[in-house]
Amino acid sequence: MIDQLRLATLTPASIQGTSNMTFIIKDPDAESFNYTLDSPSAELTSLVDKLFDETGLNRQVHKRGLKLILLNLIVYKGSKVLISRDNNSKRLSRYNSLDAGVTAINTVTDELEKSAYIHFITGKNLPFGNGIRSSIQATSTLNSLLEPITLQLAPSELVLLRGDELDGSKKLIDCTDTPRTVRIRKELTAYNELLGSVNVEVRNLSDLKALKDLNHQIVQRKFIDTGEVDIQGRPLFNSGGRSYSAWSSLSGSTERPHIFMDGQPTIEVDYQASAINVIYRALTGAVYAGDPYTLSVRGLKVSRHLVKAVATTSLNSKTVKGTSTTVGSIYGELAASLKLEDLAKYSDYQSTKKKVKIKDILEAFLNKHNPIRHIFLRGKEVGNKVQCLESDLVFAVVNELTKRSIPTLTIHDSFIVKASDKETLDTLVATTDFPDQDLVKGLI
Fold first, then answer.
1. What are phi and psi of 302, to 5 degrees?
2. Phi then psi for 387, rounded to 5 degrees?
3. What is the pLDDT of residues 242-298, one digit of tens each?
4. How close are the terminal C-alpha atoms of the chain, in Å?
5. Quick check: 6 pLDDT over 60?
6. What confidence tens digit (pLDDT) does each residue in 400-433 have?
7. 226: Cβ contacts below 8 Å, ≥ 6 apart
8. Residue 308 — φ and ψ, nearest 5°?
9. Looking at 154-168, 224-238, 338-352, which range is the least confident one?
10. pTM
């Protein structure tokens, strides 16, 4: 399945001491398997019974595993879905609605592959930390059975907490609810119910024919455990907090403008310079006046995309050298892109770094934003807290829209709504404040 994997050329600049070589890197198109999914759909139950009998599976845990696999394949709309082949991997009941473990999933996967209902892509370990994780993808035969099914998703959990990536762990962990998580879960439940009542699809603008179905989605928020707790020893849920869905991976230039809701065209609105302005709002009470990414270094005007990359990277890095290395890697990947826009950015980066160094761009940016410069170069712990404040602000707007029965799709710091709802959205984006002021104080 090599043709389904993205190839990248790594040069001596990105791997010290090697000549030009080509490596397979982690599949960017595969989605993470979601163990929290469940649905009372009678259509799905009927298909599960059919395939259970047809494949010769004979245990109830296999039937539950089969249902979970089908749910993931429906939700991810024909995409590849990552799975673990490690039978020792454990899943917490909080995040496993159907109580189907890895062993059951693997057994069902093998039987579905034998019956030509799925493609199985075997994972491989490759040099230099690269590799491919195992994944599955529905065949056209299975897709024809899945497409007519209407889901009412009922996940076991909407508020997720994973280990801190700083210690190498990203596994979901158990936790005790707090007033904050109870409120967020209630808000997400209402939001998902509203989304479930809306038909969302990508259309061809010339004939309005539907090209991609974006229904059957569930919005969850995933937080990162930092080890910080309240006076009762409960996690603060003050890091991460982003949501991911089918529409978050859509191309901004070619697909997102073509989204329709209930047959109506949509428009996308975002928080300008979200991360920087979130910090300004948290520390000063107001956003930056103007574009924070406008910058000149020794008379040279630096392109906005490069300033943004340097600023964002330094927010998650601890050193100037680390920032420079990461920025170089980001633009190195663009060199292998097939998009003209990416190649133009790479060319601009190459031209700029011949005149000024990344460290000089960073220093000029920090000097420009002296009131907030102490937030930068403090590593991912602080960067993830800023991300949490961004997500909180986005979902505060989402909650206000939900109360007004106005559906919206969120993509990190932007919102997609029906064009007729833009005025309401603009007002809420301009006036909505952070919902949890204690988290704001925690950043300061």
1. -90, 135
2. -60, -40
3. 997 777 777 666 789 999 999 999 999 999 999 999 999 999 999 999 999 999 999
4. 49
5. no
6. 999 999 999 999 899 999 999 999 999 999 999 9
7. 164, 235, 236, 238, 239, 381, 384, 385
8. -65, -45
9. 154-168
10. 0.86
Strand 409-411 relative to strand 414-418, pairing: antiparallel
Query: What does pLDDT average to over the chain?
Result: 88
- Do the bridges between strand 221-224 and strand 135-138 make them parallel or antiparallel, or are there none, so unpaired? unpaired
DSSP letter string, 291-315: -TT-EEETTEEEPHHHHHHHHHHHH
Give the Cα separation of 234 and 236 in Å (integer).
6
Instruction: Identify any residues that bridge with 300 across adjacent strands, giving them in sequence order.
Output: 297
Q: Report CA torsion sign: 74, 75, 79, 83.
A: negative
Strand locations in 163-278 (E):
200-203, 210-213, 221-224, 240-242, 259-261, 264-270
Ramachandran angles phi, psi of 68, nearest 5°: -65, -40
Q: Encoding tokens for residue 305?
A: 């995309």
Q: Which two tokens stand for residue 292?
A: 């924070």
Q: What is the pLDDT of residue 252?
A: 66
- In degrees, rounded to 5, the angle at the alpha carbon of residue 254 between the alpha carbons of residues 248 and 260 is 65
Q: Please, which residues bridge with residue 259 across strands?
A: 202
The β-bridge partners of 81 are: 31, 136
What residue ranges in 25-62 does DSSP mark as E strands? 31-32
Contact 105, 177 (CB under 8 A): no
DSSP of 54-85: HHT---HHHHHHHHHHHHHHHHTTT--EE---
Fold of 2-146: Arc Repressor Mutant, subunit A (1.10.10)
Q: Residue 31: which H helix or E strand, with range?
A: strand 31-32
Kindly list the domain boundaries of the chain, sorted by start residue. 2-146, 159-274+381-443, 293-368
Cβ atoms of 288 and 369 closer than 8 Å = yes
The pLDDT value recorded for residue 130 is 60
The answer to whether residues 401 and 418 touch, using CB atoms and an 8 Å cutoff, is: no
Residue carrying structure tokens 């709002």: 281
Integer Cα distance of 425 and 250 in angstroms: 21
How far apart are alpha carbons 208 and 126 in whole angstroms?
44
